[in-house]
Write a structure and sequence with these properties.
This protein is mostly helical. Helices cover 82% and strands 0% of the residues. It contains nine helices and no strands.
Amino acid sequence: MMGFYFSRLVEIYPFFLKGLWMTSKIAFISLVTCTLIGVILGIFRSGNNIILKRIVGVYVAFVRGTPFVVQIFIVFFILPDWGIQLDAFSAALLAMAIMGSGFICEIVAGGIDSISKGQWEAAASSGLTLTQQLRLVIMPQAMKVILPPLVGQYVLLIKDTSVISVIGVMELTRVGWVTVVRIPEGLMVFSLVGVLYFSISYPLILLSNYLERKMAVQ
């Protein structure tokens, strides 16, 4: 019987590859979006504007204090009541952007806050604008602190794509659940799902470990 299940799994393996492609596509778009939004929010979070800091602080507290699945349900099921109708794919991307940017915001803000005030003062005394201070002086130094946890967060975001299966996006985890209905051998099916997730996460894990070692000796 196990041999029969295995042969069936081999037959529908291309179905898993389609799920892996969907997972990879959502993950890539989400990582780019999360990073852009998270960097901007992180700059606001570490800035001197009290109002912006508090607004971003509330946003981050909501994102970090609520389950991701709840955030997905709000985007997919509640926003339509307010006139914002999204298909499952778009809702998944928006939910990932909201969740990921909140965590990346804290990483970026922590990196900026790690830079001494003397660096800010030196940059300001050189006649640089605030934007130039951030771009030319502060961010290059802060990246040493930001990069290792940022790459680690990317790994978590890739794994969090599994949660969007609850709204019907045919990504890797959803493919696994659909397959279990046809092949009632859960360990075999989800072992394959796990291996495929590992195949796209492990390079980032290695990169994160490398960056941690590299930044530690600088």
